[in-house]
Amino acid sequence: MAPLLITVAILQYQWARELSSSAETQIDSKLDALMARWVLDLDDQLSAPCIALQVGPDAGEHDSWSDYLDRYVKWNGIAAAEKNENVSRSSRLVNDVYVWESSSETKPRLWHFEPSQKKIGDSSAPHELIPLLNRLQGKSSSLRGAVNAWRAEGVGSDTRSVAHRYRAMSGWQFDPDVPAFAHPILHHALPLDSRTPVNRGAVDWIIVVLDYAAVRNVLLPELATRYFGRPNGLEYKIAVTAKGTNKPTILYSSDPVNVTDLANFSTTIDIFDGAHRESPHPQNSAAETRSVDDETFNDLYASVSFPVMQTSTAYAGWRLMLQPKNDSGRTMASSFWRRNLVLGGLLLLMLVANMILVVFAIHRADRFASLQMEFIASVSHELRTPLAAIFSAGENLKDGFIPSQNSLAFYGSLITSKSRQLIQLVDRILLFASTLSGKTQYVVRPLAVADVFQTLRKDTAGLLEGLGYTIEQHIEPGLPAVMGDLSGIVACLQNFVTNATKYGGQDRWVGLSAKRHAVGKAEEIEISVQDHGQGIASADLSHIFEAFYRSPIAVSAQIPGTGLGLAVAKNIAETMGGRISVQTAVGVGTTFVLHLPAAVETKGQLNGSKLATEAANQHE
């Protein structure tokens, strides 16, 4: 049985661990999907003006700069008046739109869209835009070089996945340092200044410059609240970083954090480049870090992605980083595991308890069956002894072996006593059966203890005289009446007296006594039967009131008995609202005490009880 319980415990533990692991996986999957939707929403906001310009690699074949201006003006006007919050927010994210005529054979020119005046004006290059313009100029000699303008020097074309090259070919490329989007245009119409010679193999650029402050202070906080907010605040610490060649720059953080704190963020996702999903520290680091896997991200991310312009072979771009404020996901999974483990433990304990109960019930049934067999043997012996005496007396009478009249009287007395013994044995068995079934009814009424003792001595006189026992009686003066049924009380005490004659000492003495005892505000009467016998061993003391139980000492000594007497006495006492206690010492003797409620008596009844008690003690 023990190996079975151990196996069940191991299986329950493994089951709880698997459920906990499954819960963690589900939590991580939900977080991955939430972060991917965050990225998609950010792309939607940032790419809205790019989509509105409707630029393709060969758009210059049939579109002029004025066409792009008209589209931008139209989109900007619609966005400004649009009630849709996402569209109107997108218009606020655009700072400027430029055309960079890098195909000019003389000097490249920068043109600026002025939507309020619906014109394109010549513009000098802003300081923050110069590095990007120089980079684009260096990649403008051909379309092949232009679509790979985002690559750092020394990075081969085979270092990226097919999916990533496809996204690069979509045209728009992102410079996180400005920040700005750039798109190459080939075979353009005549330039604004038609006198400028044009290299037809080179490309020009449309550049959409974002409002850096609006992105940091408006868009990113709004997205953080939308996807990770709860009624009581953000569930995670959120940071958006720009990862350069040396160390990240924090673009936005929901809580005060330093660059060194970013190593503790557990979940990351690269915003613009789905092909790059690096952990901020090694896999075997003390801080457990998880990145959204490529397959899950690509399924949700679709193709709305922009290559990020690199300044070196090291990856550079924006990154979303999360850290649970209270480790809620792990705490939830751990709590789920502990709850399942506790439930499994409780079920295992219940199984163990049930198995213990089954073993106990089997042991008890075996013991009860053994006691029943001993009872049958004892009853058979108790029946056989008087029956043998009666049979022998009958045989002698039948055969005429009666030498005198005295012998006839002897045989008559023998038959009578043995018949009475048989009747008493049958009565005890029937009384036990009736008490167990609850069919025996007792009429509880006030009884004088002296009357109880008188009836008891009358019923046990033959037994005591035949065995040569002396009985000593004492009743406390002024003892009130006892509440009980006369036949029930006498039956209990008769069992005590019978035990005293079986297990009493060589002085053949039995003591009867009665006294009052206070129990709280009430009183009870204690009726005791005492002997100077061998006493009861402590191992047997807890079993003596069990049906069919007999002490091993009594069995080995072949002391007659059925093991029913004390069980019957206990049932009778409890039926009358009383109880039985026992006081014993091995080698000294045993005292059985019957506790019954005392009757509340009037003054006249009390005087009568005193007189009856004095008369009983004087009679003794």
Major sheet: arrangement of strands: 3-2-1-6-5-4
Q: Quick one: how many beta strands? A: 20
**What is the percentage of strand-forming residues?**
15-25%
CATH architecture field of the largest domain: 2-Layer Sandwich
Head-to-tail CA distance between termini: 64 Å
- Total domains: 3
Q: Compute the CA-based radius of gyration.
A: 53 Å
Identify the overall geometry.
rod-shaped
Question: What is the CATH C-level name of the largest domain?
Answer: Alpha Beta
Helix fraction, binned, reads 40-55%
Main sheet specs: 6 strands, antiparallel
- Looking at the structure, the CATH topology of the largest domain is Heat Shock Protein 90
Structural class: alpha+beta
Tell me, rounded to a whole number, the average pLDDT.
76
Please give the structural blueprint.
Blueprint: H1 2-53, H2 65-81, H3 85-93, E1 94-101, E2 109-114, E3 119-122, H4 130-138, H5 143-147, H6 162-169, E4 173-175, E5 180-186, E6 203-210, H7 212-228, E7 229-230, E8 233-234, E9 236-243, E10 248-253, E11 267-270, E12 290-291, H8 294-301, E13 317-324, H9 328-399, H10 405-437, E14 445-447, H11 449-467, E15 470-475, E16 482-484, H12 486-503, E17 509-519, E18 522-531, H13 538-541, H14 552-556, H15 565-575, E19 579-585, E20 589-597, H16 603-619
Parallel strand pairs: 11-12, 15-17
Antiparallel strand pairs: 1-2, 1-6, 2-3, 4-5, 5-6, 7-8, 9-10, 9-13, 11-13, 14-16, 17-18, 18-20, 19-20
